Amino acid sequence: MDENFKKLIPFAKKYKYNVVGNISFNILYALFGTLGMVFIMPVLSVLFDERKTEKVELPKYDGIINALSNWQEYIAYYVNQYSTEYGIQYGLMLTVGLVLVTFLLKNLSNYLALQHLTKVKTGVLRDLREKMFSKIVSLPVSYYSEKRKGDVMARMLGDVNEVQNSFFMVLELIVKEPLTILFSLIAMISISWKLTVFVFVFIPISGFVISKIGKSLKSKSSRAQQENGYLISIVEESLGGLKVVKSYNAENYFAKTFNDSINRLYQLTIAIGKKNNLASPMSEFMGILVIGILLVYGGNLVLVEGSLKGSNFITYIGLAYNILTPAKAISKASYAVKNGLAAAERVFEVLEVENTITNKPNAIVKDTFTEKISIEDINFGYAEENVLKNFSLEIPKGKTVALVGQSGSGKSTIANLLTRFYDVQEGTVKIDGIDIKDMTLESLRDLMGLVTQDSILFNDTIKNNIRLGKEDATDEEIIAALKVANAYEFVKDLPNGIETNIGDAGGKLSGGQKQRLSIARAVLKNPPIMILDEATSALDTESEKFVQVALENMMQNRTSIVIAHRLSTIQKADKIVVMQKGEIVEQGTHDELLALNGTYSKLVMMQSFE
């Protein structure tokens, strides 16, 4: 059994009632389908009036096994009795009625089986998506610096759908169609075992041919699904960077990248389709070939030897054809299951990624901050080269510490480590003497408010964007936070105020307006530690002045780590730490550092804070 199939079983267990229901009704479907064909035999017997010269007697009952083996005699007796007593046309009506009832029951069973299957498929789809979304938002930021977001989206949407659409055909594959074939074969053997030998020869040959065709299908499906992920990535990146694409006249470059991808997908899909499309006609032709042989051999038994009645032979051919449909369905389903296995493999790849940043067993829930943040002997790098080297820093409660330095000096890395977006490789980060790895992630992040250089907003209302950190906030609290961030002046003039939708990534607002909303979001959360990562870099000079006052008000009696871009942001900081290539080269107040006439002084002179 395939490993990915085993991994899906726990998801299906929740719906075991529906799985049992589906299997039960599929058994009934196969049984009534065969009975429907069997009951055509007495119809033909009445039509051809084959029993008129025979005296038909009721077989003696000698146990259930014996009765089942004499089913033809029982049917013949009752049809003959009814035709003799009420007239041949009533006998015909009775037999046709039997056929109609059994086919009605067959189709009713099929409907109920499909209803149960739908509940299993949609339920597992929902549970898989739920688990997958929970997984992808819990994975560390580092995971997405290596993976394409589009590929993760393709697995979440396309591949999970493929699992739903094709994988659960396995229930049809192991119950419905095989039982239809089995019941038909039993009926066929009871009519003529000689003819049935041909059918037994056909089934393994057909199975061998179909398995040969489908051998490479799984690998091709896997490659097609990977290409689909790449395709979604191109679309997502093109739309995300549309202004850059247009301003650099790069539409043709992205169109070529997209077209190359869809052409590769086209070739793969054609190759997969060729094999999928071959399954059904191949199995049908082989079936018709066997029926052709049956017609020649069976016709000889009827016309020459006289050992088989015409009505029995026609029913037999009907039963033989009854095997063709499920044989075709099995070949198609086996291909679909291969597609499903390839998709399931990609889904479980994400579900089984080890999350390196998790809560320890018995992690501490820390909801207060009383003393200081200590960063002790940190060595950290995103790749092989360290971004921070033997870095140590102490941030006392209530103080504002600014980090300045050229781009790539490791300033933003400090913010990433404090919030545990990344874990330190060497050294420790402590809050009140407790290693942040010993705290729960939730309580650690509850202590912190983060305002990043890129104001990340969502396609929702201003109100819902701001109350992310405090879902039960009242409108009054939201407006108060907006006022502190100097954002209410433009929000109050919007058509729907705080209920205004700001578009995808806040696209309806200016850069300065978006940044002020990000600051309001942090203000509303009201954490004891505030991390401002280039928080005012997107603001114009006038807005910056207003926001700077707001930030200073907000930072009073609060511990703040300010990653600075502009001089005005950090002049009043209690300590300014000057960084260069991951190391501290200077630290002190604004005036102390100017007096040193060193790196900081040069940065001030150049006004080149990054």
UniProtKB/TrEMBL annotation:
For this UniProt record, the keywords arranged alphabetically read as follows: ATP-binding, Membrane, Nucleotide-binding, Transmembrane, Transmembrane helix, Transport
Naturally occurring in which organism (per UniProt):
Flavobacterium cucumis
> Can you say what this protein is called?
ATP-binding cassette, subfamily B, MsbA
**Taxonomic placement:** Bacteria, Pseudomonadati, Bacteroidota, Flavobacteriia, Flavobacteriales
Query: Where does it live in the cell?
Result: Cell membrane
Identify the domain of life: Bacteria
Taken from the record, one Pfam family name reads ABC_tran
Membrane spanning segments where?
27-48, 87-105, 181-210, 285-304
Q: Where in the numbering of this chain does the ABC transmembrane type-1 domain appear?
A: 23-339
Q: According to its record, how does it sit in the membrane?
A: Multi-pass membrane protein
